[in-house]
Amino acid sequence: MKVGCSLNFVEAVVLCLILLPIGILADMPLRFRKDGTFKILQVADMHYANGKNTTCEDVFLSEEPYCSDLNTTAFLERTILAENPDLIVFTGDNIYGFDCPNPKKSLSDAFAPAIASNIPWAVIMGNHDDESSLSREDVMKYTATLKNTLSKFNPENADYIEGFGNYNLEVGGAEGSKFENKSVLNLYFLDSGNYADCCADRDFPSPGLSEVHRIVYGYNWVKNSQQFWLLQTSKRLQQEYMADAEALKLRVAAPALAFLHIPPPEFNSSMLSKKVGVQQEGVSGPSVNSGLFTSLAGAKDVKALIVGHDHINDYCAELFGLQLCYGGGFGYHAYGLAGWARRARVVVVNLDKTENGWGPVQSIKTRKRLDDANFTAIDDQLLWDLEYA
Ligand SMILES: *[C@@H]1O[C@H](CO)[C@@H](O)[C@H](O)[C@H]1NC(C)=O
Ligand SMILES: *[C@@H]1O[C@H](CO)[C@@H](O)[C@H](O)[C@H]1NC(C)=O
Ligand SMILES: *[C@@H]1O[C@H](CO)[C@@H](O)[C@H](O)[C@H]1NC(C)=O
Ligand SMILES: *[C@@H]1O[C@H](CO)[C@@H](O)[C@H](O)[C@H]1NC(C)=O
Ligand SMILES: *[C@@H]1O[C@H](CO)[C@@H](O)[C@H](O)[C@H]1NC(C)=O
Q: Do 56 and 66 contact (CB within 8 A), yes or no?
């Protein structure tokens, strides 16, 4: 038997034995820790531009002379150091394209603390990332080449999909447990585009034009093709997971989280549960409802949809079994409120402790970290628990 160019059977078997464990590790770059936890840091709306010469928005007048993009960098470094997350998720408007003469440099500088930390990180785009000389496609392509990122341009075998930066990540169970080769937590990333269809595929020659499109047509929406891909992927993952349901005594499929930039209209539903966190501005989503919420709720595995975009909203509220969460604005070169600290969302997922060691996911909790003197943690809450599933 000949394999490849010049391997005989014995050589091929030896090579396979060498590559097998490497292959398994490469397939599961994310996994729960030995203490049964997995922590995600969400960074929303950095609006990074040129570093120290980029001014801050909505800080006190007395703070303006000493404030720049470097404050955003410092906040990111501080949060990574204190939280030591297992994954950092940037939920769009990572750079503020209009102000970026060199978008590749802005992107590299914006993500630099994540790259330096050696912690895996993932990105989706917002509506401002492509407002420079780099097209939306190229921003995502470039981002996916940066060190330690798990961001992907788009899924393989789904060339029908619209947008750039739609992908999923799997988080393996604790090493040494019965779930070590299974994805016990699934993460979906979707591109919510920029402005409504009239202008979604073009680059804006001037900031003014994009602003006109936004006002006239509103924001873009998550397309049917993206929802179809998510539903197919979710179904496949649930089937794979539940294949050993009896042996592993599983009642429900592995939970999932979805990340997006622009909130769907349901974030403003009158049926929302009591909000944990605040709403200080309207929900500025698309002017049509593309059905994303019903797709996510219908998928059954998705327990929370986590977005950015509206910087001074930072609430989570539940609607028909799905938690809808804002991150709250992180970046200083982005609108905010002077005196209302820039913030980040932290999501902590815990495994179930069984008599045979770590089991499937038991609970999903969240809180926020403020960039204030005490680095205050607020709004601790439970998003999902296996008991209630
Ligand atoms: C800030 O830096 C960028 C990139 O180096 C440069 O293009 C821009 O002109 C600078 N702006 C100011 C106000 O100095
Ligand atoms: C920005 O960083 C500078 C330098 O560390 C600091 O003096 C200033 O207080 C920070 N500004 C804000 C608004 O956090
Ligand atoms: C996981 O896969 C590895 C490599 O194939 C294997 O050695 C191990 O027994 C598997 N663990 C479980 C719980 O199936
Ligand atoms: C949100 O809902 C409230 C009523 O619950 C309504 O007054 C407001 O216009 C809505 N805002 C947006 C942006 O949809
Ligand atoms: C920080 O904590 C100290 C000690 O608890 C408290 O006195 C102070 O008011 C806090 N500062 C802020 C900005 O919350």
A: no
**Residue 4 lies inside a defined structural domain of this protein:** no
Among the bound ligands, the one closest to the CA of 269: 4
Q: Residues 262, 126: contact at Cβ < 8 Å?
A: yes
Closest CA to 121 of 158, 147, 102: 147
Residue 112 lies in a domain: yes
Q: Which two tokens stand for residue 229?
A: 């891909």
Please tell me the total count of domains within the chain: 1
Residue 234 maps to a domain: yes
Could you tell me the CATH number of the domain that includes residue 33?
3.60.21.10
pLDDT tens string 163-218: 999 999 999 999 999 999 999 999 999 999 998 866 544 555 555 566 666 677 78
Residue to mutate, 180, 241, 244, 356, ligand 3, most ligand atoms under 8 Å from C-beta: 180
Query: Considering the domain boundaries, does residue 3 fall inside one?
Result: no
Domain that holds residue 62: 9-388
CA 257–ligand 3 middle distance (angstroms): 26
Chain segment 2-32, per-residue pLDDT in tens = 333 344 555 544 444 444 444 444 468 999 9
Distance 281 CA to ligand 4 centre (A): 10
Residue 117 backbone zone (phi > 0: left; psi -120 to 50: alpha; other: beta): alpha
Ligand 1 center from residue 327 Cα (angstroms): 29
Distance 154 CA to ligand 5 centre (A): 45
Nearest CA to ligand 5 atom 14: 374
Pocket of ligand 1 (CB under 6 A): 50, 53, 101
